[in-house]
């Protein structure tokens, strides 16, 4: 197998380095704890609810527009509950404007990216859950830079609220366009289950109806993971019917140890068992992500072994999403030949495993899967 990168491999890190915390935001606080916020601010509880209605219900974050709050106190109340968290640095359009990548600067100068993808009938936002990533997968650009820090729940929610705001503004200005974000995938920078509490809190804020959340259907939310087995089980017990995507990339431990370093802790059989349990608990079909890398993991026998491993755990619980590898700088790896990809897919389908090749959006703006690598420079 070719060497993965020309630079030394980053180490797998699970713990987030200790950093200053982002300012607390309304979206960080569970609705049941809003009374405490009101008390802290010295205002009646319904004031916090009013701000929540603006933020989640109307996508309004400008205190001046919150005319149902007392004029003299508007800035103070809304300012304390909705501190600015994300500043846009660059906005890039690809795929003829159908894909938009935004690079954001966070309060401490850390940078993250989110990618909006328009499809007929739906809009998917790909969000980051961490600045950087500690999982060190050698084919992923984000993995090469290591983990900078976990995002707060509100920093995740704000990526979605901000996209929702632009779509709503576009819709009201032009009378056309989708008007809303229908799907959210945790497939940007970071490993969401390594930032478990904030990611789950963010999912709750996304799916609960206003004034508690943005009211996006849980069925439209996908959490992608390298397979942190205990966290997969925990997520299954949250009562949130989100889709789980498992980044498998190899059906055998020898190769997966190389491609997904966390495999040294949780083996292929364990991550597949956990995925099957996730399906049982939630009724949501699990997606198996498989980046097809030329001559590395795209062999016909690996397609057969993958099918065998999945079917050994039953049918109807899983589907496979092969993703043509997006080559990243410094890596010698590239996407499989089209004929090899087609054969890989054919074998899975023939064995009875539903398989759909993932369309790769945003290649032209480095916004495709695994290409997110925001430069961490001050400013
Ligand atoms: N930490 C999460 C989210 C990562 S990004 C996870 O690992 O699942 C979402 C998907 O893109 C993952 O399946 C990831 O393995 C895949 N990916 C990463 N780099 C890629 C690349 N260069 N080409 C194609 N897919 C890639």
Short synopsis of the structure:
With about 375 residues, this protein is α/β, with parallel strands linked by helices. It has helices spanning about 35-40, 45-55, 75-80, 140-145, 155-175, 195-205, 230-235, 255-260, 270-280, 300-310, 340-350, and strands at about 85-95, 100-105, 110-120, 120-125, 130, 145-150, 185, 220-225, 245, 285-290, 320-325.
Quick tags:
alpha/beta; DNA polymerase, domain 1; 379 residues; globular; TIM Barrel
| CATH architecture type of the largest domain | Alpha-Beta Barrel
Largest sheet: 9 strands, mixed
Could you tell me which ligands this complex binds, including any ions or cofactors? S-adenosyl-L-homocysteine
**Which range best describes the helical content: under 10%, 10-25%, 25-40%, 40-55%, 55-70% or over 70%?**
25-40%
CATH topology of the largest domain: TIM Barrel
Going across the biggest sheet, name each strand in turn: 1-2-3-4-7-8-9-10-11
Indicate the low-confidence ranges by residue numbers.
Answer: 1-6
Query: What letter string, H or E per element, gives the SSE order?
Result: HHHEEEEEHEHEHEHEHHEHEH
**Beta-strand percentage?**
15-25%
What global shape is seen? globular
Structure description:
There is one protein chain. The chain is an alpha/beta fold and 379 residues long. It has two domains: 26-81, DNA polymerase, domain 1, CATH 1.10.150; 87-378, TIM Barrel. The chain contains eleven helices and eleven strands. It has helices at residues 34-41, 45-57, 74-81, 141-144, 153-174, 196-207, 229-236, 253-259, 268-282, 300-311, 338-350; strands at 87-94, 99-105, 111-119, 122-126, 130-132, 147-150, 183-186, 221-225, 243-247, 286-292, 318-324. Strands 1-2-3-4-7-8-9-10-11 form a nine-stranded mixed sheet, with helices on one face. A two-stranded antiparallel sheet has the order 5-6. A hairpin with a 5-residue loop joins strand 2 and strand 3. The two termini are 40 Å apart. Residues 1-6 have low confidence and may be disordered. S-adenosyl-L-homocysteine binds at residues 135, 137, 139-140, 187, 191, 224-226, 247, 289, 291, 323, 325-326, 328, 369-370. The site of S-adenosyl-L-homocysteine (SAH) has 18 residues, from strand 8 and strand 10.
